[in-house]
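Postdoc handover notes: sequence design on the structure in folder B. Input tokens:
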């Protein structure tokens, strides 16, 4: 039996619990872990945010292992500099005990940095370099991934090159925890996408596919769009709907728009969670990142529902629509109020009606 603490949800076995934070505050965290123990959980897997590490929310916990996946431009409203952001992440590895393991992605240029001061046993994974755990993408299609993983043929339902890294990391962790390699591969092959992570909806009638993804950093938008570029049909276009959150890292706004325009045929800039800010002011800052030659393929529609509808209306057979930024979220926060809003449901409605 396993427990999970993540951005999307907390889980105790098969029971799902809502969460307001990626990493709970200390009292809540200890209570949730105690509940897992009382319920018979043998393992607890948790997503540890940089905010939590900086605020010492996990102080006193002794981790059996830690994984570094990647790091990119984000949370600079809190950390101020990218160097501070990296340092906050590194704290998790610096405080691991000697009997723990530290697993890092060698294909991220900060991956090796995470292991510099750790006492833990160190392991690496990679798609591009020699590593303790290695994989290679053989085919990346809408139906899933075909990999050579740890020297074996592997077929999985997850879509997108970035999911090859996620599968490899999950495999490595399971093996390091003593699980049978073949049983792990069998379990991974049937994994569905996490809510709001490259979650697809298809209109068979119109031959148009929409994808909802939580990508809310320039790097994440770029990676999702690169994956869509590889799997789209020969004449298919990519139409991207993207926004940036209010009261958060403003420096990434032009970079988000630039990433979207670099890899899309049409882009609609829209609201994310504007919070206390004016949505149009956020779009002004995003638009500064659009290169002059690309301006003709960019629209501004601050109403997110209308932006999704517009993307569907302009889509033709073979096109792919990406709705980025909110993923699994079931609300849109405007002026202190959380209004019900679900990107996937809006996309489904528009594809059905239009």
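Designed sequence:
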């Amino acid at each position: 039996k396993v427990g999970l603490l993540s951005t999307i949800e907390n889980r105790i076995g098969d029971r799902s619990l809502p969460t307001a934070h990626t990493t709970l505050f200390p009292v809540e965290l200890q209570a949730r872990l105690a509940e897992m123990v009382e319920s018979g959980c043998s393992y607890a897997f948790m997503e540890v945010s940089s905010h939590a590490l900086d605020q010492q929310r996990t102080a006193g916990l002794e981790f059996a292992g830690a994984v570094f996946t990647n790091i990119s431009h984000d949370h600079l409203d809190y950390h101020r500099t990218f160097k501070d952001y990296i340092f906050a992440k590194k704290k998790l590895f610096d405080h691991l005990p000697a009997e723990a393991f530290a697993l890092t992605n060698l294909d991220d240029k900060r991956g090796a940095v995470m292991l510099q001061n750790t006492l833990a046993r160190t392991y690496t994974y990679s798609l591009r370099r020699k590593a303790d755990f290695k994989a290679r993408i053989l085919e990346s299609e809408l139906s899933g991934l075909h990999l050579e993983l740890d020297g074996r043929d592997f077929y999985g339902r997850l879509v997108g090159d970035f999911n090859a890294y996620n599968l490899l990391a999950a495999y490595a962790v399971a093996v390091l925890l003593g699980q049978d390699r073949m049983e792990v591969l069998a379990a991974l092959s049937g994994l569905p996408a996490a809510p709001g992570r490259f979650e697809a909806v298809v209109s068979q009638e119109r031959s148009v596919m929409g994808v909802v993804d939580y990508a809310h950093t320039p790097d994440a938008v770029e990676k999702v769009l690169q994956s869509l570029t590889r799997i789209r049909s020969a004449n298919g276009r990519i139409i991207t709907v993207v926004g940036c959150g209010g009261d958060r890292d403003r420096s990434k706004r032009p970079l988000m728009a630039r990433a979207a325009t670099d890899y899309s045929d049409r882009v609609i800039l829209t609201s994310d969670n504007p919070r206390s800010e004016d949505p149009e002011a956020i779009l002004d800052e995003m638009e500064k990142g659009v290169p002059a030659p690309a301006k003709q393929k960019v629209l501004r529609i601050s109403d997110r529902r209308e932006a999704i509808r517009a993307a569907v209306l302009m889509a033709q057979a073979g096109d792919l629509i990406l709705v980025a930024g909110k993923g699994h979220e079931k609300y849109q926060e405007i002026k202190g109020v959380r209004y019900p809003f679900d990107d996937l449901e809006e996309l489904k409605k528009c594809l059905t009606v239009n």
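Context for whoever picks this up: The longest strand covers residues 133-141. Don't rerun without checking with the PI first.
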